[in-house]
Structure formats: structure tokens, C-alpha cells
Amino acid sequence: MVKKLFLSLFSLVFFNLYSQNDLTNDRLDWFKDAKLGIFIHWGYYGVNGITESWSMYHKRISHTDYLKQGEQFTASNYNPEQWLDLFDRIGAKYVVLTTKHHDGVALWDTKYSSLNTVKHAAAKKDLLVPFVNAVRNKGMKLGFYYSLCDWSHPDYSPVTFERIKNVKKFYPQKEQKNSSPWERFVTFNFNQLEELSAYKPDLYWFDGDWEHKAEEWKSAEIKKSLLKWNPKVIVNSRLNEYGDYKTPEQGVPIVRPEGAWEFCMTMNDNWGYFPSDTNYKPIAQIIRTFVEVISTGGNLLLNIGPKPDGTIAKEQVERLEALGQWIQTHKEAVYNTEAGLPYGHFYGPTMLSKDHKKLYLCLFDAPKNYIQLKGIQTKVKSIKVLGSDENLTFERNGGAAWNNIPGILRISVPSEKSLNPYVTILEVELEKELVLYRGHGNAVELNM
To answer: Which of 36, 83, 87, 283 is the most exposed place for a label (fewest CB within 10 A)?
Structure first.
């Protein structure tokens, strides 16, 4: 009887764990195929062109002067349909908007704080509703950035700067008997997240979790509530240990993160609009970074920082459009592909079609003499340059096929006119599904 009870309990736990993992994978399906997302940091900080909320943290501006920027945050030329036309045209599949940064300023008409763009900005309007409508009209996935910390909230601690007097006037909270300041703040967070849940976002991009432990934030309860409000929603890794995917930033990982992941990156050195920051990454670097990321199974979440009036700086538009043109030319290698070959088969990034019958080789530089591909046991049908359709010749060299050692595939160099100025892609079409030689090498005991 005890044995049967144990087996029943084990089966129940195993089934629940399996089901949860299965559901997580289902929720992440679209994300794993997305390849490109657009991160949008838009807030008061663009008025003075300063570091977003961190400028207060580092005491480079007072809390009073920081909030005064709202007087010039007009959104007078805000046209989310134009934004989404651009994002859709370049091939992005999801967008993530900063609904509220650490400064506590909300882009929607939240009833839990008057620090929002309706009541405390020259814009005097809800900026989230038209954005959500524009995203849905394009059929793209909707992501909300939300800071767990709110450095303007009277019940939030710690903060490194002196807040303005009577900060409570911004937060019309109901009295909660026998509640501590922190408990009141946690309730505030849940209330704002419930407001945002009405828009049915596909993704939550949390930030600031490092300031408190998971038990303090009630991260487990947050995740449970988000899934209750929308069973298909996914969450980034900054909800302590309760995230669904990893999101390293600014430095491309040398070792691929385990599981689903994205890499978020600025175009210059700042997230928000920062007109004095002219250190923009070259187009070639952005495209190469995109290729590196998708070749190892991740997405690129590329950031823009719109101006206070809602327009996007020309330097940012130029880079988005260049990336989009490259993607359009090489879309076969971008969409419906997965991470490519393990290290050692080809000296450069690679992608593999989902049916494993096409291999995409990425050339960052103009090759010399010939291009080398190693350890491919499957017979190659053809090789061409994407964008020009130039067919390349190839031949196997070395190895011992009768002893299961494939040698190398020597591919001819594309003509100069076929080389892309940023990244050239070769499509290797196979006769069957890819089979790799992963041996350590051995003596050929029988020569043919």
C-alpha cells in the first residue's frame, strides 16, 4: 500500500513538472522564432538628454529637477503607427516598451500614481493605449518593460538620493491597517501590474529585481498572477528565479546561455534619447551582432530612444532600415532557422534550417583561396550566395568515406560583386538531413 502511494505521488509530481515544462515550451514557441525585437526606452530623461533614472541614483540631477523634465515631455509628434510601420518593415516580430522605469513615471493613466504622462507631463495623454493598438494592428507581439522598483514611491527603499518633499501626493494609496511600508509598496506593484494585464501583453520585461530578494518582491506570486491574467504570457529573467528566458545585455555572450534567450543592446552608449552621445555603433557591427546572436539560438532586442516629442532620431532610423534591408535580402537564413553548427566545423557563424536540409554559412570578411567546411557527412546538392544567387563550385578533399571520415568540403570563393558589404550568406543545400562527423579521428585500417 505504501509503495503504491509513493508511486502515485511520484507520478503526480513528475506529471506536474512535465506539464509545466511543456507549457513553458509552448509559451516560448513564438519567442524562439522571433529573431528580432525592438526595445523602446522613452521617458522624461530624453528632455535633458541624461541617463534614464540612474542620473538620480548617481546624484547627477536632483529628484526635483528630474521630475521637472515632465514639463517638456510633450509627445507632440508621437505617431505609434509610424513606429510600427518601421518595425514591421525591418522584420521585427516583437516590441518592448518602457511602461515605467525606476523613476516611477508611468506612460499610462494609472490610478495608483499621478506620476504619469496624463497628469504629470506636458503630453497630458495616455501613451500606452495607442501604442498597444498599433502593435496589435501589425500582428506583432507586445512586450511591457516594468521596473519592480519605484524610486519616487514614499514606501520604497532603499534610495540613494533625497526625494522631493510631500512625495506622497503622487501616490493616492488607501490606508492599509497593520501593513508595513514595504507591504503597501508590494500591493502597489500588484495593482499596477493588474492594470497592465488588461492590455494582454505577450511578454513582461522586468527590471530592478537585484534590489530585493524574491520573497520580498513576492516574485512567485507575481508570476502566478501574470499567468492567471494571461496563461500564454512569458517573463524575462529579471524576476529573480521565476523568468522564462535569459536576457544578457550590451556584451554578446561568449558562451551561449542555456535555454531561450535574447541579447539587448543600445545603438550608442545610452538607452534613452541622449543627443550628446554620438558614439553610434556602425551598421556593420549591428548586423554582425544580429548574425552572431541568431546563429547561437537567441534573439536581438535592439534598443531605440525616441525624443520627448515622440520622433525617432535619424541615426537610429538609418540603422534600423539598414538592418531591415539586410534581413530582407537574407530572410531564408534568418526565419525558420535555428542555431547552427558546433564550434570547429566552420570558422564563422552558421544557421540551420528547421528541417536540417539547409545550412547557412556566414562570411564576415572576404575569403581567400577557398572556403572550408568540415565534418559534413551528408551529400551536398548545391551551394549558392544569398542575394545574388551565384552558384559556387565545391569538392570533397581528404577523409576516408568508407571509414566514416568525411574530410573537408572545399568551396569556391564568391565573385566580388556577390559579397555583401556587411555579412555574406552562403546557402548549402543538402540531399538529406544533416549528419555531422563528431569523432576524434582514428587510424584508417583499410585503404581503398
So the answer is: 283
- Left, alpha or beta for 387 (phi > 0: left; psi -120 to 50: alpha)? left
180-205 residues labelled b (16+ CB within 10 A) or e (exposed)? eeeebbbbbbeebbebbbebebbbbb
Burial class (CB in 10 A: 0-12, 13-18, 19+), 378: middle
Q: pLDDT tens digits for 245-301?
A: 999 988 888 888 889 999 999 999 999 999 999 999 999 999 999 999 999 999 999
DSSP code of 206? E
Integer Cα distance of 235 and 59 in angstroms: 31
Secondary-structure class of domain 23-336 per CATH: alpha beta
Q: pLDDT (tens digit, 9 = 90+) per residue, 145-177?
A: 999 999 999 999 999 999 999 999 999 877 777
- Residue 26 Cα to chain centre, angstroms: 18
Closest alpha carbon to 413 in 440, 393, 432, 386:
393
The full length of the chain comes to 448
What backbone phi and psi angles, to 5 degrees, belong to 51? -60, 135
Which residue spans of the chain are classified as CATH 2.60.40.1180? 350-430
Query: According to CATH, where is 3.20.20.80 located in the chain?
Result: 23-336
Q: What is the pLDDT of residues 228-258, one digit of tens each?
A: 999 999 999 999 999 999 999 888 888 888 8
pLDDT at 444: 56
pTM: predicted TM-score of the whole model, two decimal places: 0.91
Instruction: Report the alpha-carbon distance of residue 400 to residue 3 in Å, rounded.
Output: 55
Three-state DSSP state, 323: helix
Q: Does residue 434 surpass a pLDDT of 50?
A: yes
